[in-house]
Amino acid sequence: MPKREQNKRYRIALDAMGGDLGPSETVKAAVRGADLHSVDVILVGEEALLNAELSKFHTHSGVSVIPSVGVIEEGEHPVKAIRSNPLASIVVACRLVAESRADAVVSMGSTGASMASATLTLGLLEGLERPALGGNAFGLVPNVSILDLGSSVDCRPNQLVNFAVIGSVYAKTLLSIHNPRVGLLSIGAEEGKGNKQIQETYNLLRDSTLNFVGNVEGFDVFLNKADVIVCDGFVGNILLKFGEGFLSAMEQFFYVMLKDSLTARDSNLIKSKFESIGSLAENGGGPLFGVNGVVVIGHGSSRSDSIIKSIEIAKRCLVLNLVNAIGQGLADFENIK
Question: Per residue in 105-117, pLDDT tens?
């Protein structure tokens, strides 16, 4: 697929109300990210609140505000909330892309609301039944992509195969991996391990044209056994949050064990090292694959540095024309089956 213009100034709609930390972090990220990545950032949210945050900066070239009303919170039923509040920030942000007023959406808000808004507003690529949230979940293994990380919790085998195709295209396009190895997350490496869903998916992947390397187990995520690891969103989200918790616990463990011999500089070094190998909360969000537009969803606890990385990811997806590449990859896969 041809790349888009590298020097084009893309417009990123940022859901400024999403996330645990709200506008203080999203506005800071918009001001710095617009300059750092040469993009225009459209802040979507409560106008007075966003303008008050912007007034704290000496200059905010490339940043504008589009008003919205309210925010869809975690715990709300996404589709019902969207229908009852069509002016919520994530809905307005997705609509900007649908109306060609923005090129991509970035949100740290509710995953369910972001997925539902993107699906309802932008639609899915042809042949797909569900989107998938994924990408590089852990900085410790920056070239390993996991799909799905929480957007589709109940999946049929053919949907998991679609995730494998999408993950392969992503690994080729954004990570420059020529022939990505696809692994299926299971409870054992041997063929025949796993529940009915996994066993049926295994057979489909084994007989496909993908570079399928078989089942992989949880510890294989960090052992370079596969470039793309496929699972449903229920398992993937548990894996993601277990990894986040483990890395956080290890950071605290090393700090407590070594605190009496650590200088302040050493302590900060340990913290930064663990953050660099950590999860989406520190390393930027992941694309919502399968929707007909670029949507990047980050962790709710993301601070400005991580949101800036999410803006960068959105720009890279645009420059490399990822949506078209995935559409073509799915079409090619169907034609060869």
Answer: 999 998 888 999 9
